[in-house]
Amino acid sequence: MNHSTNGLVNVLISGASSGIGRALALHYANQGYCVWAGGRNLDALKSLMEVHRNILPLCCDITNPEAIKAASVSLPSLDIIILNAGTCEYIDEAKHFDGALFSRVINTNLISIGYCLEAWLPLLSTGGNLALTSSSASFLPLPRAEAYGASKAAVTYLARTLSIDLKKDDIHVSVIHPGFVETPLTDKNDFPMPCLVSPDQAAEIIYQGISHNKSEIHFPKRFTWLLKLLSLLPFPIWKKLAARMTK
Question: Cα 26 to chain center, whole Å?
Fold first, then answer.
């Protein structure tokens, strides 16, 4: 791991106000890293600062490129960037497609990453790590997930393309494919969530994966390997199985 110009190992984590992002911020801080915690909720970021002195707030709306630039003027050279912010909304009636919902999800989960990369990638040190949080939902089409699944499938593609193009800059790229993690977002789900893990468990797995330069970090394995296996089925077979989930 390289050290930035201020002598510290600097990590920037977006979506640090709650859930996986908050757990990651605390985990890295506890390991002695200087953590720049990104999010829109300043009160939530301040509460993180109160828990650990290694955490510094980066308050901005990642869907607003000018806000990102304004908040980033004091950032030092970075060693790790984890783009973790996101949202989830479902399309309940596909025939009456909600274009505004679709736009919100795509904008938050995908388009905002482009703004973050534009502002922060130039700050990433040679030999640094970039990680993008996708989802195991990107492995195969799921009911009601037209917006969320499409956004996360695109994030996976983006991460893998970046891993090719940033190799010459000695920047390692990881794509994160979580299963169900107990967060404020999943608390809204109205369906069973098998193999649910805690944010702290997720943070430890992601931390280890990035530390070992893993190209893909997916968990919990018993769940994500099952999804990977199902994704190998001919689509007509999966389509019939998935249709049963909607009944």
Answer: 16
Mean pLDDT of the chain: 94
Q: What is the CATH number of domain 10-244?
A: 3.40.50.720
- DSSP string over 46-109: HHHHHH-TTEEEEE--TT-HHHHHHHTTT---EEEEEE--------S-GGG--HHHHHHHHIII
User: Which three-class secondary structure state does DSSP give residue 42?
Assistant: helix
Of 197, 237, 206, 198, which Cα lies nearest the Cα of 134?
206
pLDDT at 172 over 90: yes
What pLDDT does residue 124 have? 98
- Let me know if 247 is exposed, middle or buried by CB neighbors in 10 A (0-12, 13-18, 19+): exposed
Q: Which one, of 204, 223, 187, lies nearest residue 28 by Cα?
A: 204
- The DSSP H or E segment spanning 26 is helix 19-30
The CA distance from 58 to 34, in Å, is: 12
pTM of the model: 0.94
Return the pLDDT at 187: 72
Per the CB < 8 A criterion, the answer to whether 153 and 136 are in contact is no
